[in-house]
């Protein structure tokens, strides 16, 4: 009898309540049958009862419902993942020096005809390639599609020199002097999808700053023909405080399409410093703005601390622990700024864009 009770206890302990109840009913039925048989004759032996153990599937919890996959992220109508794969692995056909700025930037042409901007690791302190890749990942976490897809890629010194085109041969000495190569002769840099036909939107002149400051204040009217561009500008101002890019309004760094309708947040290699408050210059431009995108506000509220840790297959972590901590602090500061605006002026007035 003790063995039977012990068996019931084991069943109860192992099985779920529903399975345990079913097993107990079957077991008790068999036991009652065996007991009545033994009462009829002390010489008779109860028929043996074989209880099949439940299969493994009975003990497993039900499979969770699968969430619908998130929609693909795109850039200029192209799937991000396809572009990232090309940036990582496509064969390089030629290397061209891209003029402009003090940073060393190379235009890479792949065998399929597509292009990318490559910033090698270099001695110039204002250009840290891994921060370009971090800015891309931050933008996507915020639902911003204005930063071109960017990855880290290692290229050998020999390949860069061998594929340097005829018009860029004069840059060989500078490339060898400023690019940083490891013991194996490789440099690791950021590879960003090349946006053709970029134009300076001239939003950093004194007259332009006064005009958009008025339009983005609570007192200023929004014209239909400028509303779309101003919405992108307000997102850029918040983005630059979060990533701590104080170099945006230094001249020629606010770029977009030639029709002036689409902005591209390019040249982010100077951000992500260990400054938890944010650079005063970037904060000053943000405080000129009192109208923002509702989509950006929603993304900021959903952005967790874990979302602000960025990795790349080539380099691993893109930011140091101190840089991540400062990034989270600046994110919180932007959230507080928008919260105060909404408290003062109302959600509809502050979240004026989609």
Distance between the termini: 73 Å
The largest pleated sheet is described as:
5 strands, antiparallel
Contiguous low-pLDDT stretches (5 residues minimum) are: 1-71
The coarse overall form would be: globular
Rg to the nearest angstrom? 32 Å
Number of domains: 3
Output the structural class: alpha+beta
Strand order of the largest sheet: 3-4-5-7-6
Strand content: 5-15%
- Fraction of residues in H or I helices: 40-55%
Total DSSP helices: 13
Q: Can you write the helix and strand succession as a string?
A: HHHEEHEEEHEHHEEHHEEHHEEHH
* Average predicted local confidence, pLDDT: 84
- Tell me the number of strands: 12
What does this structure look like?
This protein has 354 residues and is of the alpha+beta class. The chain folds into 3 domains: 1-26, no CATH class; 74-193, no CATH class; 199-350. Helix content is 43%, strand content 13%. It is built from 13 helices and 12 strands. It has a 5-stranded antiparallel β-sheet, with helices on both faces. Strands 8-9-10 form a 3-stranded antiparallel β-sheet. α9 runs antiparallel to α10 (280-286) and α9 (224-243) crosses α12 (321-345).
Task: Summarize the model shown.
By secondary structure, the chain is of the alpha+beta class. The protein has helices spanning 2-14, 17-40, 56-59, 80-89, 129-141, 157-162, 172-178, 206-215, 224-243, 280-286, 294-302, 321-345, 347-350, and strands at 74-75, 78-79, 92-97, 106-110, 115-119, 150-156, 186-193, 199-200, 255-256, 263-264, 311-312, 316-317. The strands form four sheets. The protein has a five-stranded antiparallel beta sheet with strand order 3-4-5-7-6, with helices on both faces.
């Amino acid at each position: 009898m003790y063995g039977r009770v012990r068996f019931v206890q084991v069943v109860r302990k192992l099985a779920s309540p529903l399975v345990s109840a079913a097993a107990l009913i079957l077991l008790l039925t068999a036991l009652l049958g065996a007991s009545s048989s033994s009462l009829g004759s002390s010489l008779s032996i109860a028929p043996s009862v074989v209880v099949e153990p439940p299969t493994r599937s009975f003990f497993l919890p039900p499979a969770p419902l699968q969430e619908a996959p998130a929609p693909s992220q795109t850039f200029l109508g192209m799937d991000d993942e396809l572009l990232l794969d090309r940036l990582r692995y496509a064969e390089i056909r030629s290397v061209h020096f891209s003029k402009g700025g003090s940073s060393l930037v190379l235009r890479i042409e792949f065998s399929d005809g597509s292009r990318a901007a490559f910033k090698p690791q270099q001695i110039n302190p204002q250009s840290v390639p891994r921060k370009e890749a971090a800015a891309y990942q931050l933008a996507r976490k915020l639902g911003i599609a204005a930063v071109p897809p960017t990855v880290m890629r290692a290229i050998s010194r020999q390949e860069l020199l061998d594929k340097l085109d005829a018009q860029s041969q004069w840059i060989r000495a500078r490339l060898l002097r400023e690019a940083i190569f490891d013991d194996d002769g490789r440099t690791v840099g950021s590879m960003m999808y090349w946006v053709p036909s970029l134009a300076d939107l001239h939003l950093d002149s004194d007259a332009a700053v006064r005009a958009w400051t008025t339009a983005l204040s609570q007192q200023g009217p929004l014209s239909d023909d400028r509303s779309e561009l101003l919405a992108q500008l307000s997102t850029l101002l918040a983005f630059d405080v979060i990533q701590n890019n104080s170099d945006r309004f230094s001249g020629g760094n606010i770029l977009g399409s030639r029709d002036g309708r689409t902005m591209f947040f390019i040249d982010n290699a100077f951000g992500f410093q260990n400054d938890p408050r944010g650079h005063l210059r970037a904060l000053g431009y943000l405080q000129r703005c009192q109208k923002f995108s509702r989509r950006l506000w929603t993304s900021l509220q959903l952005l967790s601390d874990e979302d602000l840790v960025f990795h790349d297959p080539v380099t691993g972590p893109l930011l140091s622990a101190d840089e991540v901590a400062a990034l989270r602090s600046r994110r919180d500061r932007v959230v507080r700024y928008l919260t105060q605006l909404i408290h003062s002026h109302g959600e509809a007035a502050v979240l004026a864009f989609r």
